[in-house]
Each structure stands twice: as C-alpha cells, then as structure tokens.
Amino acid sequence: MDHKSLNMVIFSGDYDKALAALIMANGAREMDVQVTMFFAFWGLLLIRNPKNLSDADKTMYEKMLAALTPRHAEELPLSRMNMAGIGKSMLLNMMDQNDTPHLIDFLNGAQHKGVKFYACKLSLEIMGFKPEELIEGVTVVEVKDYLQDALAANMQLFI
Amino acid sequence: MDHKSLNMVIFSGDYDKALAALIMANGAREMDVQVTMFFAFWGLLLIRNPKNLSDADKTMYEKMLAALTPRHAEELPLSRMNMAGIGKSMLLNMMDQNDTPHLIDFLNGAQHKGVKFYACKLSLEIMGFKPEELIEGVTVVEVKDYLQDALAANMQLFI
Amino acid sequence: MDHKSLNMVIFSGDYDKALAALIMANGAREMDVQVTMFFAFWGLLLIRNPKNLSDADKTMYEKMLAALTPRHAEELPLSRMNMAGIGKSMLLNMMDQNDTPHLIDFLNGAQHKGVKFYACKLSLEIMGFKPEELIEGVTVVEVKDYLQDALAANMQLFI
What we know:
The structure is a homotrimer of 159-residue chains.
Chain A: E1 5-10, H1 15-30, E2 34-39, H2 60-68, H3 86-97, H4 103-112, E3 116-120, H5 121-127, E4 138-141, H6 143-152, E5 155-158
Parallel strand pairs in A: 1-2, 1-5, 2-3, 3-4
Helix pairs in contact in A: 1-4
C-alpha cells in the first residue's frame, strides 16, 4: 500500500514558524507519512552547523550576510512579538513549563525519524552558504527536484 | 458524489492574512466545498472570546502574553503597513467604502456556513490559553488530527 | 496525457517571497506543468505597471495607499533584514555576483512561458487599484474562480 506524503518548503527563518513546521513533520512521520522539507532562502538558517561556519572563499557581501544572520536554529527570532528577544525568551519559558521540547529537539527528531532534508542549491549560491556549512544529512537539490517531489505528494505547504 | 475539501492552517495572527483565509473559506462553502480551519500559535488570537478571557490558573508568563496580545479578532494588526494602527484604519475605511464586511463578519459567516473550526491543543497549552476562553463551536484537536484531515483534503494552505 | 498543475496565491508583497514564487513558476513551466498565480492583497504590488498608475477616480484613502506603496515589482522590500533597503541592495548584489536574474526578469519569464496571471477582483476594489493600472496579460477574476482552479490543481501554495 502506498504511503501518504507531505512536502514542505521552509522559506521562513522564524523560530515559531519553523517550530510549527517541525512539529508537523514529526507528527506525520509517527503516522508513517513520508515527509520532505525543502529549505530555501531564510529557511537555510535552520540547517547551518554553527561549528562548520567559515568565511573562506566568501565575497564581502557573503561575509556580511553570514555575520548578520543567526548561526544556529535556536537563535532564530520570532515572526511576531520578538521584542529584541524578550518575547522569544517568554515563549521558551512557556514551552519549558509545558515540557515542550525546543526547536533543535524537533529538528533532530525529524532527522532521526527519517524526514528528508533538502537544501535549495540556488539559495545556497545566492547567499554564499557552502554545502559543508550545513548540518549532516542534508542533500543539496535543484528547484526542479523539489517541484517533482512536491507535485507527487498528497499535501504541500509553503512556510 | 464526493465533495471537494479545503484544509487551512491559520498560523498567522495578522488581520489581512486572516481576512484572506476567511474570504476563501466563505467562498468555498458557497461552492459546497468542505472547509476545515486549524488555528495554531498566533492564529489562536482569531478565536478567543473577549468576554471569556480570565487570568485564573495562569502562570506569570501566560498572564503577560494574554496582556500583550489583541483580545479580539478585530483588534489584530496588519502584516504590513500597520503603522501603529494608521494603516489598518485606512484599510478598514477602504473596506467600508467598498461595502466589504469586516473580519469578524467573515468569521461569523464561516461558522454559520459550516466551516469546521479546530484549535491546536499544543499551541493552547504552550500559550496558556484555556479552551473555555475560545468562541463557541471550536473543537480542540491534536496535530495528528489536523494532519489526518489535511492529507485527505484536495487542497491545503498554510497561512 | 494530463499535465500536472500548480496553483499559487501571491498574497505577500515582499521581494524575496515573490522571487521564490516566480522561480518555482518558471521551473514548473520548464517541466511542462500548468501554473496559475492568483495575486491578492499586497501581491497586487507585483503586477502594477508603473507607467499606467493614475489618481483619477480614486478616493482620498486610495490615493494615500497608492502613494505609500512601491510602484513597481523591483521596488518591493524584503520580508526580513530589509534594513531600510540596505539588506535588499546586499541581496541584489549577491544575486548579480551569482548571475541570478532579478524579480522583474522572472516575472517577465513567467509570462512568456505561459504562466496564467490572475488578479483578485475584491482586492483590487478594496485597495482602489484599477485593472488598467496592471501590467498587460493579467485577467481579473473572483475568489471563486481561483478556488475552482486551485481545487483542481495537483499542488497549491499560499505565499
């Protein structure tokens, strides 16, 4: 029997939107649904490995962008009420009180459960992020590979 | 004959995005399409009943969040050009000149026409909103219930 | 044999989100996928013709909105890190270094490749934009026409 499938573009680099996406991804895997996440533009900020960031081979603009963006998924701001980080630390406290794992836990969980992580080649090139700066287990693909996968899925979201 | 079906996650708490979602929901019901709206995170701000809000049983953070967020759908800000409310009052004036109903009318219309309103259990817990603070006719469900419904729908949107 | 089909609502008026949408639209057409883009609310800012903008027959609010919004797709701000235009000019420089075309090129490319451009009638009316202010080749349609097309598509996104 065919498995259902869910395809998500993660365009946003906001903590709360990424959390929503990864909670869905984890839930879907527990229901045996095949899940693909295609990280593009700001979404790439979720899958950089802070230990592997390097300025080698980068232009001035690429270095500036690397310096101005969060180095790690947990450092992403909220889409709303971030209030220079106060709103976000409020949210994290409320999540802790509810025993809800943090973004990084859902990210690791998704990988362990077999969610496919794809990074957008064109976005990487424009932003000057190198494939070796990404976390392990991410495949770099073209927009057309994403479209192929998405068109065949039962459900697609742009986040 | 099977009816077509539309499933929307309402993640955003922006007036304009909520308006777009509810205009689609009303239109779809008039075309006899089955419609489910799953309110999560900031989207919960659309379905709180301002008369039922209470600080009972809330932690300090939950009280702060309740105090800092709009109490009612009509109080939501715009996603863009809100300009401390000036842009929004401009939009409302333009809607009035065009005889376009306001958000709350589309929200009531959607409920009357049979749009299913679901609230995300996990989001409620994290944000400290109680089911009894929501408007009537909303069912609290798990992320997996949402996914089940969405995967079976003809069309899914993340708003 | 049936062609696959992709339907996108372009609600956002952000340069980076519009870029993502149009890169997908171009890629999909190259794969012989049928593509419809339905421009609503801020998304209308992508398809105004700066040479045809006029204040004739506009109310005070409609004139104010016309004056406060970008007149042309290339003038749209970023959804994030816009920093009064500094972030955006950084992005454009990085795109140039990578030989990536600009938004307007992807917009023209999409039209030449046969992407269907629809403008939301209700949004036009509320915002006071006239059909004759839009670029050539755009059809004004009702929300229900959009829904009909979207429900029949293989894939739908809200951007």
